[in-house]
Structure formats: C-alpha cells, structure tokens
Amino acid sequence: MSGCWRDPLQTILSKSDRIAIIGIGRTDAGDDAAGVLIVRALMAAIPPSNNILLVDAGIAPENCTGALRQYQPDIVFLIDAVAMDAEPGTVALLDWTQTTGLSASTHTLPLALVARYLASELNCDCRLLGLQVESCGQDLPLSQSVATSARLVVDHIITVLAADKAYFSERTVLKW
Questions:
Q1: Which residues contact 152 (CB under 8 A, 6 or more apart)?
Q2: Which of 4, 89, 95, 128 has the smallest set of CB atoms within 10 Å of its CB?
Q3: Considering the domain boundaries, does residue 135 fall inside one?
Q4: In this predicted model, what pLDDT tens digit does every residue of 78-105 receive, in sequence order?
Q5: CA distance linking residue 142 with residue 51, whole number of Å
Q6: Which domain holds residue 122?
C-alpha cells in the first residue's frame, strides 16, 4: 500500500478553503464501493460546514454537478476504486490529465471526462483519489485490502482537516 498520496493530499487539503469530496461506486459490487463508503464515513464524522461538501454520487458523479456549481469549490476530489495495475488496496492521488488507461468501467461516464468538465466549468482543481481493486463482482463484500486502505484514507483526511479546521466531531463511526 503506497504512502506517497498522503503528503500531496495533506498539502492540497491544507491550502484549500472550499473542498468537495465526491464518493463514487456501487455498494453491491465488492471493492467498487470504496469511494462511496469513504464519503459516508466522512459524512458521519464531519458536521455540516460551509468549507466542505461531501457527496455520495453512486455510479453517476456527473449527477452532482449542479450541487458543485452552487458550492463553487476550490478543489474537487473524486474518490473511486480503480484498476491501475497495482497491488490490491494501493492508494494513489492521480492527476486526471494523466489517467489514460485507468479503468473505471462501472460508471456512466469516464472519470477523466467528469474531471475535465468540472475543472473547466467550475474553474477549480480536480483530483482523483483511487484505490486499487481486488474484486468487483456482484454481491461481493469489500475486500480486506481495500477496506484497510479506505479506513486509512478516512483517518488521514480527518487528521489533516482537524489539524487545520474545526470540522469534526468525536462521532466517527466506520462500518464497512
């Protein structure tokens, strides 16, 4: 599980005033649920705030563009399970302009297309936080490797934001 995503994520989150985190995936398809479960865990931990928007986008992140347009974020993080030819559970902070060959076939539109649209329309930075899948079969549970990585992502985001901003309560409950 690569740790090179932590420092860049911390830097970006610390410098952003209006953050949008979009969880993407299918909850009934094994590891594809990772993005949605991460955002749901963050929703349980973060009280409503003008500085962060958390969206469970399911399989259609393009459906949340209206909420993003209204919110006007500085940065949008699209969090999703991906196939990037790495060890299962590997986490990577990806630049959408360099994601050729990245697989995200369970969604209605490719994530690079959604990211390009958001960056252009909202004049904001857009990043993909990907978790390497182990299995995405119908009705499979989240694999242990992806569940472990998802918990690390949630904990890291909470730690970074809590250090800089008063976003969090003590009621963080993670159910995978």
A1: 1, 91
A2: 4
A3: yes
A4: 999 988 889 999 999 987 776 554 444 4
A5: 30
A6: 6-164
Strand partners, 81: 131
Q: Are 5 and 93 in contact (CB under 8 A)?
A: yes
> Residues with Cβ < 8 Å from 49, sequence gap 6 or more?
165, 167
**Which pTM value belongs to this model?**
0.85
- Partners of 21 in the β-ladder: 54, 77
Q: How many domains does the chain have?
A: 1
Helices (H) and strands (E) in the chain, counts: 5, 5
Of the candidates 2, 10, 17, 21, the residue with the CA atom closest to the CA atom of residue 127: 21
Beta bridge mates, 108: none
Q: Strand, helix or coil at 72?
A: coil
**Partners of 94 in beta bridges:** 128
Identity of residue 130: G
Burial (0-12, 13-18, 19+ Cβ within 10 Å), 152: middle
The verdict on residue 170 lying in a domain is no
pLDDT at 169: 46
Q: Is 56 a member of any domain?
A: yes
What CATH number is associated with residue 83?
3.40.50.1450
